[in-house]
Amino acid sequence: CHAGADAPFGLRLDSLEAALAGSWNGPVLLPGDPAGSELLRRVRGESRPSMPLVGDPLTGAEIALLEAWVEAGLPAGAPEPEPEPE
Question: What predicted TM-score, i.e. pTM, was given to this entire model?
Fold first, then answer.
């Protein structure tokens, strides 16, 4: 949904640069501030509408990975996922 020129509210999530640019309403990712990052608030269901609008919600592990990335200051490159508990 959030790709290309027709992305809702101008929020493109198809590249790191686009995600960091935010939406027409401002930034959605705040380096070092997972609690204040609107993207995380939406995927956790704390802000409405929760995301994604269609399809399965993110897993707890996926959300934790995003939170760790934001907490680390949004570094470039793919973060390493935590191993699943056995």
Answer: 0.81
